[in-house]
Input
Amino acid sequence: MKRREFIQSLVASSALAMTISPSVALAEEVKPKKKGPNDMDYQTALDTITNKKEAKDSDKIKLTVPEIAENGAVVPVKVKVDHPMEETNYVKAIHILNTKNGNARCADVNLTPINGKGYFSTRVKLGGTQEIVALVELSDGSFIKTAKSVKVTIGGCG
Amino acid sequence: MKKILLPFAIMATMAYSGEQFAMSDADRAMYAEILENNPADIFVEEGSEFFEEIGDEEALAKFLGVSEKDLPKYIASFPRYIKKLGNVVGVDQVLQAMQIEQGKKRFKLKSENMFSMLAYVKSLANDEQFNIDITADRHIKASYALGKKTFETKRGGRGLSCLSCHSKDVIGMILRTQPLPDLGEAGTGATWPAYRMTKSSLRTLQRRFQGCMKNALLAVIPIGSKEMVGLEVYISKMSQNSKKALAIPGLKR
Amino acid sequence: MSKNRKSMIKIKPKKFKVGDIVKVNFIVIHPMDTGLTKDKATRKIKPAHYIDSVTFSFDGKPFTTMKSWETVSTNPYYSVNFKVSSKGKITVDYTDNQGEKNSKSKKVKPKG
Output
């Protein structure tokens, strides 16, 4: 990992190594150098899923993510949709997306009324500070969404 | 009061206010929820299968010369002097000795299988308080003293000791974006083995010591050595003093 | 090609009745390699290896299907709700991008 090698070389060279400002360590921008197998940016992913239909911001979606994530490898995500789950009116799908990873997609969950509630939870990897987006499809074909920012700190000892 | 001389660099870094990087209580609650579905649980279950192969609680109790009923409390008294093995040992060393005694394939102390089995056996003592008696005999006395000495000895290229970052004076200061914990109050000894999120694996306390040493540019000490067992005694005693009950497997960054 | 992957299904709460909505939590040990990281030992890039689909079924009938990507954490966790209709068995079938197919089941035992 580039960051680790960078820090290690500084530690080896001078006592001031430990004064690396934590703000430098904060990944404000994620610049993916290598291409992953499923890379797709957020807008393309959004358009693909919604087929370019409008996805209105909605407070019916309760998206719970940490404001600050101690490490980007395991970021908990919880989505609860305040909407019925009846035979003809239910939450059809919950899509978890991110805005700055090489692949903006995390999970695409197809629900049925048997779920009882429009809910999904998982843990995702974030390459740096960015937003998590919960994009919800309802059984009538409409889309709603909400987003929250997660600050990913890259620090800690080992 | 021992005067701790820290390299200027560390002091400067530690002086940073922690607010911008501090996880809120709501954040910590989310991470606490992960504990309910800890990947470590799967490793612990695997550990129970390994333990079954060497005879389960019945065999362990027999090996240690205690009743099965007393086993949880007894496990919470480790590391301790085991006459049969002639040393102060951790539970993992007892399990390894059982494997050798039974002619079974022995797990290396620093192996995933041993970590899993250790996590399972230690979890049998969950909710118990540590009851390490550091005055019980000359062996445990020496082990504790060696652990304390190892904790306080400066070594390595940066002249750091465990105490440099884990003394009472620096608790709460920020180092590399993390607030330095009070090892006793944080229940450190009581919450390892744990799942480490940054390593996506189950790790033990001594294994964590090794990681910490590597980071501080100290020569890594082998797991199961007198010094490492001493360190485990020393750190576990801190949780004992802070009355932190065992809660294994833990979940760590 | 099936590998003996370790996984667990947890139902919360532990005690429930018919008609209750419970949480079905599935955790599985899987590297979820993105194809962008190096193996520390060999220094070679580890090929992408991640769970790409998960299906939750009750007594053989799927009630949740999902696509999972390499952006999900290593040793992943997937949790959905389930409305208990009767005694039965929940099965989680999952596949990964390298063709592995696996399955885990848990009995559903409502009280009353």
